[in-house]
Design a protein that fits this description.
The chain is of the alpha/beta class. It is about 40% helix and about 15% strand. The protein binds nicotinamide-adenine-dinucleotide and 2'deoxy-thymidine-5'-diphospho-alpha-D-glucose.
Length: about 325
C-alpha cells in the first residue's frame, strides 16, 4: 500500500510515521511537509532511510495532484496547529487548514484515493467546568479561535466532498496530545523545558482550564483503527479519559523534576481561552474495538519528561525564539 502522510515532520505526524514504519512494513510511506517553523526533518531521522520525503505545500495543487495520483491512502495531518499563533496572524491558518484541505480533497476526488482527515475536539467549542457533558460525534460545532474555526471549516469541506462527490473519507477529532517530538511552543513541552532550564512554568489566567490529555501513540493507534475498520463518511472522536486542569499538569511536571510544586507563575490569559474540553470516545471503543494503552497520565508524563531530558539537541534550537515570541504578549501577574 502506498501511503501519503501530510505534515509528517510535525509532532503527531512524525510519531504516526515512526509507528507505521515499525508496525506495517508493507506500507510505502511518502511524507509531504512544508517544513514551517513547526516542521522538523530531525523528527524523521529514526526512519529517514525507510520513507520518501517531499518538501512542499499542501495547497500546491500541481504537486498534490502528482503525489495523490501515486497513493492508495492519504492521511492529512498538516496544519497550522497553535491557537496562540492564530490570534497573532490568522492568515496561514486559512491558507493551510482551509485551502490546503480543499486542495487535497480535489486530488483524492479526481484519483479515487481513500482519505483520512485528522481534526480536533476544539471544533466543538468548550464546556463549563461543572458540566457533566462530554463532546460526542453529534455535538454541534462552535469553534472559538481562528485555529479551531479553520479546522471546523476543513471538517465541513470533507463531509461535503463525501456527500456530494462520494469521496471515500473518514474523519477523527482528537483531544490534546502529549509525547515526544512536540514543539516547545505547546503547553507541556514548554513547561518541561522551562523547568529543565531552571525557569518557572507559566500558567495562563487561573490555571483552572481543563484539557483531556491523550498520549500521541494512542491517538495514532486510533487513527489506524479507523482507517482499517471505520465506516466511510463517518466521524470518530478520539480520547483517553485524561481530563486534567492546567495547574495540576504544571505541579506534576515540577514534582517529576524534583522541584517545589508551587514554583510557577500566573501570566496574562489567552484571549477567548476555552475553559474545558472532554471527549466521549464510546463510539470508537464499542463500534471499532479501540482502547488506549496509556491509561495513566502521570506515567505518560514522566516518560515525556525523560524524553525531553534526553533529547535537548532536538528542542534546544527552537527554545529561545519561542520564549522571545511569548515575551512579546505575556505579563507575569502578581
Ligand atoms: P504541528 O504543528 O506539530 O505539525 C504540523 C506540521 O504540518 C508541520 O510539520 C508543518 O511543517 C506542516 N505544515 C504546516 N503547514 C503546511 C503546509 N501548508 N503544507 C505542508 N505542510 C505543512 O501539529 P500537530 O500538533 O502534530 O498536529 C497535527 C494535526 O493534528 C493537525 O491537523 C491538528 O489540527 C491535529 N490535532 C492536534 C492535536 C494536538 O494536541 N496537537 C490534537 C488533535 C488534533
Ligand atoms: O484539543 C486539541 C488541541 O490541543 C489541538 O487541536 C491543538 O492543535 C493543540 O495545540 C492543543 O490546543 P490547546 O490550545 O489546548 O493547547 P496548548 O498546548 O496551546 O495549551 C494547553 C492549555 O495550556 C491551554 O488551556 C492553554 C494553557 N497554557 C498554554 C501555554 C503554552 C498555559 O497555561 N501556559 C502556556 O504557556
Amino acid at each position: 500500500m502506498r501511503l501519503l502522510v501530510t505534515g509528517g515532520a510535525g509532532f503527531i505526524g512524525a510519531n504516526f510515521v515512526h509507528r507505521t514504519v515499525e508496525d506495517r512494513p508493507d506500507v510505502r510511506v511518502t511524507v509531504l511537509d512544508k517544513l514551517t517553523y513547526a516542521g522538523n526533518r530531525a523528527s524523521l531521522d529514526p526512519v529517514a532511510d525507510r520513507i520518501a520525503f517531499v518538501r512542499g505545500d499542501v495547497a500546491d495543487a500541481a504537486l498534490v495532484d502528482r503525489l495523490v495520483a501515486d497513493s492508495d491512502l492519504v492521511v492529512h495531518f498538516a496544519a497550522e496547529s497553535h491557537n496562540d499563533n492564530s490570534l497573532g496572524d490568522p492568515a496561514p491558518f486559512v491558507h493551510t487548514n482551509l485551502v490546503g484541505t480543499f486542495t487535497l480533497l480535489e486530488a483524492v476526488r479526481k484519483h479515487g484515493v481513500r482519505y483520512h482527515h485528522i481534526s480536533t475536539d476544539e471544533v466543538y467549542g468548550d464546556l463549563d467546568l461543572d458540566d457533566p457533558a462530554r463532546f460526542t460525534e453529534s455535538t454541534p460545532y462552535n469553534p472559538s479561535s481562528p485555529y479551531s474555526s479553520t479546522k471546523a471549516g476543513s471538517d465541513l469541506l470533507v463531509r461535503a466532498w463525501v456527500r456530494s462527490f462520494g469521496v471515500a473519507a473518514t474523519l477523527s477529532n482528537c483531544s490534546n496530545n502529549y509525547g515526544p517530538y512536540q514543539h516547545v511552543e505547546k503547553f507541556i513541552p514548554r513547561q518541561i523545558t522551562n523547568v529543565l532550564d531552571g525557569v518557572r512554568p507559566r500558567l495562563y489566567g487561573s490555571g483552572r482550564n481543563v484539557r483531556d490529555w491523550i498520549h500521541v501513540d494512542d491517538h495514532n493507534s486510533a487513527v489506524w483503527t479507523i482507517i482499517d475498520k471505520g465506516e466511510i463518511g463517518q466521524t470518530y472522536l478520539i480520547g483517553a479519559d485524561g481530563e486534567t486542569d492546567n495547574r495540576t499538569v504544571v505541579e506534576t511536571i515540577l514534582e517529576l523534576c524534583g522541584r517545589d510544586p508551587g514554583d510557577f507563575d500566573f501570566v496574562t490569559d489567552r484571549p477567548g481561552h476555552d475553559l474545558r474540553y472532554a471527549i466521549d470516545s464510546t463510539r470508537l471503543r464499542t463500534e471499532l474495538g479501540w482502547s488506549p494503552r496509556y491509561g495513566d497520565f502521570r506515567s505518560g508524563l514522566a516518560a515525556t519528561v525523560d524524553w525531553y531530558r534526553s533529547h535537548e539537541d532536538w528542542w534546544r534550537p527552537q527554545k529561545a525564539a519561542t520564549e522571545r515570541a511569548y515575551a512579546r504578549t505575556e505579563t507575569i501577574l502578581e
